[in-house]
Each structure stands twice: as C-alpha cells, then as structure tokens.
Amino acid sequence: MSSPARPTPSLLSGAGLRDVARLAGVSTATVSRVLNGSAAVSDDKRQAVQLACDELGYVLNAAARTLSSRRSMTIGAVVPTLATETFSRPLAAFQQTVHKAGYTLLVASFGFDPQVELQEVQTMLEHGVDALMVVGRTHDPKMWELIERKGIPCVQAWTQDHRRPSVGFDNVTVARQMVDHLLALGHQRFATIVGEPAFNDRVGDRIIGTHARLTEVGLELPEHWRMETNLTLEDGIAAMRRLLQGPTRPTAVICANDLLAFGALLAAREFGVRVPEDISVVGFNDFDYARHMSPPLTTIRVELEQIGARAGACLLEALAGKSHSGPIEVSTELVVRSSSGPAPKPTG
Fold first, then answer.
1. Longest CA–CA separation in the chain, Å
2. What's the sign of the alpha-carbon dihedral 123, 128, 133, 139?
3. CA 233 – CA 294 distance, rounded (Å)
4. In what order do the strands lie in the sheet with 328-329?
5. CA–CA separation, 231 vs 132, rounded Å?
6. Where is the HTH lacI-type domain (predicted)?
7. Taking Cα atoms as reference points, which of 107, 167, 113 lies closest to residue 132?
8. Tens of pLDDT along 220-266?
9. Left if phi > 0, otherwise alpha if psi is -120 to 50, otherwise beta: which for 151?
10. All domains of the chain in start order, with CATH
C-alpha cells in the first residue's frame, strides 16, 4: 500500500513549532533560535528549519512572541532626513546590525523640526519599539521624559554626549582641523555655508570650532560671510552666489556638508571663479561623489557606516543588560584634494 500523501501547506495552516521541528529533524529550541535570528545555529539546521517553515506554510506569530518575550523585536530610528548619505548610509549599517539579532527596523524622519521629532518618537514608543536611535544631543526635554517612562535603551548618534549613550565624534575638533588646513595654505578671509545651528548641535559645534580657531590667530568671520541655509544642493548654489556677488570675496569657503560644497563649486563655475586658484571650497562627510567633483573636493571623511553599526551594537548590548560608560567614538579623517589650495595673492 502506498504511503499517504504529505499534507499540503494549505491544510497545515495551524502548524506550530513542534510540526516545524519534526519536519526539519531538529528540536523546538533550535526552531525558536532560528526564528528569533540567533547566530548560534549551524547553517544546515537553519536551512532545514527554513525549508520546513516554507513547506508547512508556517508564519511566526509576532503578537504571541511579543507576549512571551515582552519584546516586539523592533528597533526605531528617528533621523532628520533620508535624502542624503549622511543618514542613509549609517541607517543601512544600523539595519544590518540589528537584523542579524532578529530585530526589524522602523524609520521616521523629522526634517530638523524638534516638534516633529517629538511626535515621531512618541509614535515609535506607542508601537512598542524595544530600543531607539536618535540623532544629536539637542532634543525637546519631553522626548527624554517619554523614553525614560517607557524604560527602553536609547542611543544618540552623530554626536558625543557624556550624560547619555552616544556614538559619534567631536565636531569642534574636526572643524578646527579643517581651519588649520586652510590657515596653512595662507587663507585669512573665511566664509561658511552651514545649516541653521539652533536644532543641529553637530553644525553648531563645527561653527564653534571654526570661530574659536580663527580667534586664536586673530582672524574674524564677518557676519555677512556667515551663510545659514538648508542643507541642499540648490541652497548651496544660492548661498555661494550671494558670497560671490559681494563687494569683496572670501578666499576660503567652509561648507557644512559635501552637498553644499558641490553647490558652491557649481556657483563658482557659473561666475567664472576658479577653484582653488581664486577661492578654496571644502566640505564635510566625504560623500561618494566628493572625489568625482570638478575639482575633487577636500573634505572631512566620516566613517558613516561605523556610526550605524556601532549604534546598533550599543543598543543590542543594552538590551542584553550591558551599558556603556562614555561616548563611543568613530573615525574621522581630513581628506585633502584639489578644491583647496594656496590663498590667492593680493592684487593691486
């Protein structure tokens, strides 16, 4: 007599862990580890479990898992924007890190508006995220009240904060490093194109570092050469046009990111201003296209993937009961290319 036909997945819609374990030839504990994303499972057993799940039509009941573990297996990230590499690249590394531990990433952007950030954080908490990543150390105080009331780990990325968990670098120091580079080239007339610093402590710290270093050597940054704008290509073009249309021009322009610097280079070309012979332009972040600009851009390289990976690891360790005593530092490097050169000699 022939053996009975194996039930089809549609007849096994009520399959459970034991059914999956029996078909895969493993224990129910192994099935649980695979479904929770644990790394402590051999590849052959993991594949056997996945094949069994597919054959049985088994779908993990997330609600039941949440009740049993008191975790939603989700982690939230609230960032200013998804439109630039500044945040998209770290988020990709962050997601990869937490996904390996079985977590799903929920992302929201707030457009540099503190009230929108507060609302998005509240929404994340209402959805029951197990941990949260935010950007910078400047936030509405109510945000921390909500997070602390919920009792979940939260890490601040792209910054250093000795009061709360953070992953980033010293923006004051890197700004001074860039000014030193330009001073060594003989520049004395500086301008900046930056974002509004009120709710952007990263830009605010770089402005502080720039002013402090110039003051130490007896130089000033004139008010009319301090361009505050949105961090977009078009705004970089517009800000550089204003600088070039003035009665006098700076010889060095420090931009808050590479996108603004790219806009500055385009505006300089439009005005027939040579870079770096007439004016030097420098950026920040070392975006993928920075080396391909014309001329290639001098910038501060930030290991953006490091920010995301280390922020994710920090939260996973916190969820495991471990904590960090101080800021986690990521690497930065001054990358000198052709957009910065010796200050032009005075004419006349």
1. 107
2. positive
3. 15
4. 104-109, 74-79, 131-135, 154-157, 166-168, 328-329
5. 25
6. 15-69
7. 107
8. 999 999 999 988 899 999 999 999 998 999 999 999 999 999 999 99
9. left
10. 9-60 (1.10.260.40), 71-169+304-331 (3.40.50.2300), 171-302 (3.40.50.2300)
